[in-house]
Amino acid sequence: MQSREYKGKKFAKKGQNFTDVVLEGYKTTSGIYNINTQFCTPSEDNSTNPTVQVLTHGIGFDKAYWDLPLNDFNYSYVQVATDVFKYHTLSFDRLGVGKSSHGDPVNEIQSFLEVEATAKLTQMLRAGTFPGVNHTYNTVVHVGHSFGSAQTYSLVNKYPSISDGVVLTGFSMNSSFIGLFAAGNNLQQAYLNQPLRFSNINGSQAQNLIDTYATNLFDYLAPFDLGSLPEPQNTPNGYLVPANAAANKYLFLKPQYYDPAILTLAEQTKQPVTIGELLTLGSVPMMNNFAGPVLVINGGTKSDTVDCGDGIEKFPECERD
Fold first, then answer.
1. All domains of the chain in start order, with CATH
2. Contacts of 57 (CB under 8 A, 6+ apart)
3. pTM of this prediction?
């Protein structure tokens, strides 16, 4: 049997399909899952036939990626999409993330299951059966970020008529730089990296220990109430998070072109990725059955490490006019 360390090194190797390397077979997964969602409409909405955007976040984030509360929502995609352009939006925590259902991190929480979950949400919007939404949508656009873009791409390939258009941000069919993503993340077990968020020790229990044993120095170093933290997700082995803020900075933020407060928030609220999701990264089809409009947005050469590399090699999806 190959060791986990050896397989991890092979995952970071450039120029191979890691999914094919470790794939051992297929099985059908079925069940009842809870998906935590946020549905938004314009403050003033007079449209009789609005378009709804279904927003799928990437690895390391949850649905808040699309609606950051930072700086009075100055960086909120949802706020601009709704109040400026009058779209309706549906964002959601992917399975295994945030307040949505968690499951086995290897054989259950994989890309295939998550694509089916997105399809079900979309079908409910079109049928007028989405809970709390009294509307039937004729026009649905799917927007993804990074891994969420890969899932969106797979969604419209399997169900070509499910979407009227897709927007893929942080996306490329060139997978040459997935190794940089893996190495840059320096992924660690979530429950060890941030035990108060991902283990079975909650904030109140930690606060009691600190009140009993800690010195005044700890109060100086960490002047906040641990008891106010939400209940931890209690994730098992196989739920992984980026090692630290430096990993997020390397992967997603260009030096001198971002608000440092965003990096702090990203580290405080980072979300896990499962081994199963990493194993199914290579499941994106090379040819797509979708015939509708597609918009691809990347950071460009020397700015988008994951999709465009170091800028030495040239790819059309990373070039600007």
1. 4-176+254-302+309-318 (3.40.50.1820)
2. 63, 65, 66, 91, 93, 94, 97, 145, 148
3. 0.85
